[in-house]
Amino acid sequence: MNTxxxxxxxxxxxITKLSSDYLQYGxxxxxxxxxxxxxxxxxxxxxxxxxxxxxSDTDSNGFHLTIFSTLEFLSQLMIIYAHNWAGMTExxxxxxxxxxxxxxxxxxxxxxxxxxxMDIEKIKKRNQNLYCLASYTITDKTGxxxxxxxxxxxx
Length: 155
Hints:
Layout: H1 12-18, H2 21-24, E1 31-40, E2 43-52, H3 67-85, E3 95-106, E4 114-126, E5 129-139, E6 145-154
Antiparallel strand pairs: 1-2, 2-4, 3-6, 4-5, 5-6
């Protein structure tokens, strides 16, 4: 224990022993798909499932949805919504997330049925760019709940 606030250099071996296996290796094996989307005005609902998941040896409860996969599919939903809103039927512009906030209220453990409710707070077109601000509630059948807010644009 380094309680004296003295500088301490860690070797590669020490770093490896302290590091998350998930962040180093497991994340690369996770994948997901969007199974269904309903767009109704400024609301979007979607269902997502994990097609490949990582289960940590240190989580005795098995699978839990990570914020990394969550941010990926929330970004994808914003890209889809913005293109659809602009009347485009295929992706023509690059998406850029410029700000995000997330709150994990309770773990999402059902990998097969992740429900997303997306509320568009603001969307506008300026020249060729589309700007969007949306809030999300992500839930599952086990009582899991995440809340998120993303700001992004397409250019």
